[in-house]
Amino acid sequence: MRRAFTVTFLLISTITFAQVFTGKVVNVIDGNTFEIIDEYDEVATFMLGEADCPELGQELGEEAKAFSLKMILKKKVTVERIGKDWLGNKLAIIKLKNGKVLHEELLREGLAWASRKSTDKSASLQSSAQSSNAGLWAIDEPTPPWIFRRQQTMMQAKSR
Asked: Which terminus of the chain has fewer CB atoms gathered within 10 Å of its CB, N or C?
């Protein structure tokens, strides 16, 4: 009985949390952060759930943003909300009308790192990009964005 309750609870919470909707991308903030307007004219900010692009102050950060701009700006996309990160940012999978998945294309081009909790496919795409020295992988020891962000935080003056 207890097991059936747990399974039912997990199914209901998964169904409730995994929202899928169609929207139009109205702003690309960086390679993996976007503002999307839904059919109710509400704008929400989403980050890619499977990949992390270089920050704008990093090597290839602008290139990752330009790639995402070209792929999705002012286009209708399918947004599959997959949760939140530890900071509360909404995470999503972004699919284009042509069937392409944005984070997969960024990984394929070497413009992103697969996230720590990514699927085997994302990890495989990153490995392929590394093997062919695509994008980031042509740079000697590229700095992952999570390390770059931490370094930037550490360099900021502490307030008293």
From this structure: C
